[in-house]
Structures are given as structure tokens and as C-alpha cells.
């Protein structure tokens, strides 16, 4: 956005014109489009530091905030503006909204500008340029209510290249992730509007770690919004408006907008007219959904790599001055966590070029005018006023090295590769050819084209997961050996499929055509592929995948599993870059010659000569690539299988790679050079084959060794057999690989391949003279454009589909804003780079065709209370309590005014529960004619009966045996006052319902109501003696298999009544233990209610940070992990017990902890070492169960009965919940969809549910142990850390509330919370039972 000339404000243009001007742009906000700032503009500079606050700024004219008027403003380091001075940051930085003071928060987080890490600038401004620009934004965002808004004053605050707070460390350099953002408050005499601006690359970190919990790798997302603060002396909470709650919503700040300009957000924040709360502009933007990042032309810092898209800039590997290529080492945390990020930066030697050009009378909002370094700059904006800006060669904080503009003058902006100094022109900087001129590979022994279109395949088995060919078509078999008989793919077309019913199998960029035997999909013009998968011609493409291998390097076995692969392909010149992370060094070094691993992507997306087609045009996104490579002279052999599994929602190709066999050992420090080569591919229906030989050289100083290998390649895919074969496509094509590059860097643990490819006719060794630039990649088209060759060396550029521009510069088309999408009713259009996708609105889901959105029948999911009726409506539903009940339908309670007796109320509720869940069998009380409980109550059939008093409590009575069943003889309820034992027993039976579980304690009373001396937990072996008052006799508690010798007074009754089966209550004597930094807290439970007044500190552990906590019910010991001391300790709950450290070595960041009281073992996660380990409870017999494919393991839970282990990994790129046996066998992923930051995990042995609390999705969810039956319990959590289940409740610690929160498992309602007097973060939580649960 170019600043305005210093002229009087023009009359406001029509709001519609402003809206169209703003919506015409498609790209993100450039840093130079912020409001002008700098000390030369009159800005004041906030003192650098961690928690600084400005002196009060006296405003020339008061501004309105909500209903009040303020004359002073304060600016704080932590991304916040207020009308009063700030409290200490510990009182507001880590807490959720609302704050108790007025707050305008463009990015509230723990920011630190110490040691020159950025600056905070602020000023009041009345210049016409600033006021005019603010007015235009406001008028566009509020076209009806602010069409004539003319501000008189503006207040600007800019946070430039500021960093997150970090603990000082000599081992780890400061993070290079720096943020830039701006807040502008524009006001007139009656109204105030806020503009929040976030430029592209402006947000490189999205949250900060709390200081008191810094050692725990957990970030709180930044808060963005507005708070009125406490509004009167009664400390009443004022209104507030929150824009972000998750990390994804923070990321979307610079990608989305509520007034049509990505990165710009407008809000009406104050008025003399009634304003009940903040009013946002409503042109567009939804922070709650994930949106793809725009192509960012500058590189992030190292630790940001895991969050961004891979672009050509950060995957280019080769510089025109080879010796100047820099591969900075990753941070230690990346190495520990196994991050599969790629961050490659370069030093550019280009010279600056001058800036200049005419100013614009209106904001210039088309992205095509904004290359990385603008061609024109407003005459009123001196580049020198924006200190630290990437203009004209000025140092740019946050980038690696100095970034300058291109030497070359002309009309086009510099390509990213020129800016970064890594041109891939094969005539410059390519590895030198061999002395023999680099002869093409031998085609000796390659199979020739076979007649009749039969696919002759090499000797590779077809994998079991070959893509299915659809109903009505069958694969009869593929089984080939070179030189033997062959089989071909054949189809059974008895059941013809047509476009009418199956067009949904085609890509959204394809059309469907019916043929005699079935239908086929064909890509539309300007797209290519096999019809089921179509990609835009000329656009860049990305590949994500995993690589696993079992290799012998020389004679040394090396294994690796699911390491990350990323590839980036520049489609309009055939460059393909591949990076594979965390392959062990010996294997990575030995794989350097195997450029075919990345060469597959070169063949898939090779530059096409006229009349010739690259691989993706045949295979689409589902195929299998098999290679067998034989090395010489040692004849080592390795087999590589690459399986493509389709396109993800962002149109990235997903691929799995498996490498098996033996490869020659290559010593460290040797470099590998592969000369350019040519390969001939033979095409048949559903198969492509190739055979070639390749030389490569190993060099180190003066050592130069030449070796070779032979490679057989076989690619199988699903071709549509119903359409006639295209006669113009030859059966033999040649792939020219003009440039090859392979490199392994041990510091980053990255194996890289890069190739430049073009596909065309089979030709001789010499290329024709006068190659068109479209064919050799020397054209100047944008990398999102297609190059069209003309006569001689002439050519034209055309932007790829989904982009617009002149072909030299192309920007994304926002199909959603332009209305050119094809999303149907009840769906939402989500713009993507070069494309878009459709998502169903809330309350709708995709039908089987994956295009149409149909209503979700929430009533079938039993979301209402059992005593309520559910009414499904389009996109929603409602619940209404039954007659005789009151509530909101989600929670219904008996209505006292209904006139029903307690028996009739319970009877109606049980009947409603059975009607809602026909499979359930709740007890339906039997009532007499007056509505009272009948003395005899039965559940379903004889033999399951008991006597009840007036409140349905079970009472003792004689029994008869009738046909083998015990039937109680009930009379009028006993009038004898119930004893303590009886009252305790009856209270439990009322809650338990049904026969008590084997692990549930029921006091045993004699006929007179006295405690029986021998008391046991149900049918378990855990027994003890009690005195006459029911108190346990110390030292009598038994071990399994033995019974204490208690002296009985009265023989226990031989038959006990069976209690009601419809209630599941908690046990008595249960309490919670929670970790709070340097102490472990004790919180008793009364039933499931928190006894907050009884809470106390159990253990004080000075200098510790206790994170994980669990309890051994057998020996009454509490165990915990300490990330500050890097230890695991335990302590008895007996009075006076001292803590004992049991593991004190080999730990970095021990977090989650789980105790198996059956097997006397413990399990823990270490997010620093990325390990899961186990040991005996005394720390002996320690063993690492898992140390691969873990990034951020945190919570862990054990099911000792079934022998299962569960854990979470909050890897931000691929969060998941996994399981295995307790021995570490049968590891598998249970959940990896729709989760964000699964911090807490608990296994309930009674309900057999595995449940987790997610700080990313804000949900509490449960699933069965096999991953089925997933359901949401609560979807409005704040920031949960740890969770435990007990009875019908969950209890979790929350970092926003700094407390313990309880949630009802059945209703999902929040039922209570406990906030300790000392405010600090709570970590792990566990429940302490008075017995060991069996969980049958």
C-alpha cells in the first residue's frame, strides 16, 4: 500500500468502489505496505528489554475505547497497548482473555527486545497521508456505517523484528524467528477504529514459552483482541473480543483478512453511540480454519522451517559460485526432536538497484505490483525512514546474510533464485563434465516396445496396495520375468460404469467421457495428468513423503524408519529438488550416487518438448516405481520401491519410499559427482520400463575414483482402458538429465538431490543447434507460468491456471473471492495457491461423491440428554426436555412442579433412557398406585431382585430360593435407625447401581449394622481388619494371596442384597495429586466433587519442575518426573516419608510418566531425547522401547490389564497418538487426524476408553483402545496440559486458568474448577484410589 501524497483528503469514493479496489488484490501484505514509521517520522523508541512500558503518551485529542474516553496511552514490549500502565507481565502475559485492565493486543506474547533484537516504535500522527490511508481502510471495511469516516488523529505502534523471550544459553544461539506487526488507532470526535497489520514473513513465531515453565517444550499461542478491563469498583469483568485462540488462528493473521487485504484487520472499537462490544469488518476471513501460506520470498529462521511450505528458495541447493553455498547447522533442539524441516540459506553477491517511480493516488492493492523488491516506491515515502527494511541492499534482520536486488535492469522482477544467488542455469555452476564429454548411458539390454500394446514388466512383484481399478474391472495379473512369458492387465467390463454415476472419481479440473466399455477422465485445457489427478501446467509442484530402509552399507547393517522426504519441482523448466532428513550418516553417504531416488520426480514433472509427455501425464498421482540397482565392481544390489498415494488437499503428491539391500561403503568427506545423462523409457498400457548404466566419481582432494551401476526401472499405474490410445504419444521417449547434484551434510543430517530434466524424442549425442529457451530452462517466465516456444528462440509466457499476470510475473487468483469456484450449497470455499477447495459448513458433511454437502443428523449421535427429544434441522439440531423435566435439552432435571413422585420421576427417566438407547437396559423402578416405591424391586428377571425402602435404598431382608433363584421376602421398611456402617453402605449402593464391580469397595455390615472385622475390596485379595468404628487396624492390610487373621464377632450374612444397577458412583477416599512447579498438591474428592477447602501441599520440592506424575496403588507411592533436575523420583504417602531419586542419568526432558502396578514397571517419555523408556519401579532393568519417529512425545498411559501402552506426540507437522504392547511390539498409530497438540492422555480401566485433551483443537475426545468409536466429550477447553479420568468425570490441568477443571464424561459439561491460591502453571495430574483398579 503506497502512502498518499500530502494533499487534502479527497471526498470519499463510493464504498463499493473501495471494496472492489481492496478485493482486487490477492497476495499478502508486503512489509513496505505498513503505515510509514521510523524515528525520522517522529516515532518514539521504547526502551529495549523484556517487560518494558512506555511513559504515558498524552493524546492531542482523546479517543474512544468501548463506551469510555481516554487521553493517555501506554505501549508495552509484549505486543500490547493500554489506557493505563501495565501490571507485571506474570499477571497477564500467559493468561487468557479477558485482562483486568484495558487492552488493545495486536500480538500479546512474551516478547523480548534485549540485546538489539528488534525495536518498538510509537507516535501520534495527524498527517494527511496517514489519516487518508486509515480512512480508506476503514471505509472499505465498514462501507455502510463508516462510508464518510474522516479521522482527525491516528496513533501508530510498530513492533519491528522483535523476538520471543528465550532463556540465555551458551549452547544455543538466539532464535532467528522475528516478528513485525503494527497497530493503528484512527479516531474522530465520535468513533475509534483499530487497524492491525501483519505483513508477509512478519510472523515467524506464533507463541511463546512461559518463563516459569521454560524447560517444558510447550508454547502458548499469542492472544490478539481487545479487552475493556474491570469496569467498576466491584471488579466486574468487562466485555472483551478475542481474535485468536489456537496456533493456526495466529498463523492465519497474515494470510487472511476481514476487509479483503490479506494481513490487514479492521475493528470498530469505540463510539459515543452505544457499542456493546468490538465490531469487526466483515468483508472476509476466518482465523479458525487452516489456510495455505502464500509463497514467501524470504527465508525464515531455522526453527521456523517446520511450519512453512517448502518453496524453491529454501530447497535450492546450488550456487553459481559453488564455494559460497552455506548450509547452516540446525539448532540442537531440531536434532533432539527429529524435526524433518529443511532450511537452506544462501549469501547473495548481487548489487542493489535504485528504487523510484510515481506515487499512487489510491492504495495500490494488486499483488502483481509487489515483487520481492518493488519496482516503484511512493515519492512521499523515503526508504531510509524504514530502518532495517530490505530495500536497496539494506540489512534485513531475520534473514541469513544480506539480501540485495538483481544486477540486471529490465522490466521483470528478479526471480527468487537470482535473489538468493543460486541460479541453476546448466551452463553456469554445474558440475564439470567428464573428460570424455559425458556420453549418454548405455541402452544395452533395454527392452524394446512390444506389439499389440502389451506391457512387458521387469521382474518386480506388484505390491498388494496397487490402486484399485474400480467396480466392474478386475486385474487378472502382472507377472513378468525378462526373457520369459508375460501377462498383461485385462479388464472385465460386464458391469459398465458411466460418467453419470462415477464422474466424482475425476479431478475437479477434468471432464468425464463415456466410451463403449466405460468412462474415462481427461484433464481440462491448461492442466495435465491422467484425469483422476490433474495439475496446472507450468506451476510449481511439491511432494511430501516418508522413507524407510534396511540396508547393509558395506558389511554394516543400517535401519531407518519413516524419515521425512520433501521435494519441490519448478514445472516450467524441469528442475526437481529432493531432500531427505535424518538418514543415518553411513547410509546417507552411501546413497549419494542413487540420484534415481530424486530422479523419479524429475521424470514425473520433466519439461515437455512439443508432442511429448512427462510421467505425470500417464501415471497421475497413484503409481508404483520399482528400481533394482546393481553396483560395480562389487555387484552389491539394492531394490527401491516408491509408492505414490495421491494428492493431499493442498495438491501435494504423497509418496512412500522403501530401500532394501546392500550398497557400497563411501567414506565420509568424499563427494559424489554424477555426469549429465540420458535415459530411454518404453511406454505400454499401465507400465513404463527403462534400463540404463551410469558412471559416478568419488573425489577427496587429489583422490578421484570412478565407479558405475546399472539400474532397471519399472513403473506401473492404472490407465483408463476404455478410451483409444492417443496416437500422437510415442511408445519410446528420451529423458535428458542436463544437470545432476547430490550432497549430504552431517550437521543438518540432510541428503539432497537436484536434477534438471526434459523429455522428448530419442536423439543422438549432440543436441540441435539453437535450442528454444523453453526447452533448456533459460527463459524468463515466472516459475508459476508456462513457457510457449515460438519460431527460433522466440517464446511467450502464460500464467498457469489459477494464477494471473503477464507470464513474467504471476499471482494467485482468489477463486473464492472472484466467485469462479464450484463449491455447492452449504459449503465454504477455501482459497489455495493456484486452486481452491470446498469445505462443508458446520452441521454438514460431504456425501459419497465428495462434492455435495448434506446435513449431519446430530440426533443419531445421541447428543441430547436421555430425558430430552432431539429435533434435527438443516445444519443444526435442537434438544427439548420431556414433559416433567426442565433444562436446555442437553441437561434435564426433574421439574418439582410436575407433580410426579420420586418413583414416577425415576421411572420416566429410565423409560426415556431406554427409548433413546434401545440396546441399554436401565432399571425401571416399580411404583405402587400412590406413586411410591414397591418394597420388592427387580431388574429384568427373577434372581436379580432386592428389597427397597421409601427411597429405593437396598435394605436387608430374608431370602427364599425359588427355582434356583434367590428371591427376597420384602415387608415394610425397617424402622431401626441405620448405623454408620449401614448408612455408608447404602450411600455407596445408591451410587454404584448394579452388582458392584470386583474392584469397588462396599462396607460389610452384620445383621445389627456393625462393621464386620474383615473388610475387602470387592472380590479382590486386598483385605484388612477394622475396629468397631470401621477404622483400619494398622499393619493388617494383606498382600495378594493372603488374608489377614481378623477375629470375627458375628458371622457375615450368607446372602447380600443386590444393589440398583443404574448408577456408577465413585469410591470413597479418593483424591487427586497434581504437579505445580516445585510442589505436588493434594486435592480430595467428595464423590466426584472437588473438596477445594481441603486442598493442601503434599510435597515441596525446591528447585524442581515436576511435570509427569502417577501413583502406585500397591505400595502407596507417588512417582514424578523433574525436567529441571532431569530425574525421576518417588515418595511414599506415609507420614514423614522422604523423596527418593530412582533415575538420575540419561535424561534430558522427562515429561509423561505411567505406572504399571501389576508388572511393577514404569514408562516415561523424554521430549529432549525423543525416546520412550521403561524400567522397574526401583529404576533397574532400564530399556529404551522407542527412539525413532518421535518428535515431541509427551503424555503416556498404560493399560496393565490388557497389556497396552499409549502415548502422544505433539509434532506440529504430524501430531499423533500411538500404541504398542508393553514390550514395545506391534507399534501403530491410533489417531493422526483432526488433532493438534494432544498434551494430556488417560486410559480409564472401567469404561475402557482412551481419552485425550488437545490444546490445539481445544477438544476432549475419547476412543476405544483400537481407535474406533471416536467421540468428542467437550470442544471448548482452554489450554489443557494433563488429564485423568475417575468415575464419570475427567479432571485436567489448564494453563490458561492455572487450575484443575472437572468435566462430566456423559454430558460434557464443566462441573467445577479449583484455582490454587498461588498462581502458577499446573502440569501432571493423577487420581489416587484406596485400592488397585482391575478394570474388568
UniProtKB/TrEMBL annotation:
One GO CC term on file: basement membrane
Coiled coil start-end: none
PROSITE patterns reported for this sequence: ASX_HYDROXYL, EGF_2, EGF_3, EGF_CA, LDLRB, NIDO, NIDOGEN_G2, THYROGLOBULIN_1_1
Record region (Disordered): 280-305, 348-451, 1034-1060
UniProt KW RNA-binding keyword: no
A single GO BP: canonical Wnt signaling pathway
LDL-receptor class B repeat extents: 1116-1159, 1160-1202, 1203-1247
Signal peptide (UniProt feature, chain positions): 1-28
PANTHER family: NIDOGEN 2, VITELLOGENIN RECEPTOR-LIKE PROTEIN-RELATED-RELATED
Protein name: Nidogen 2
Organism: Ursus americanus
Gene encoding the protein: NID2
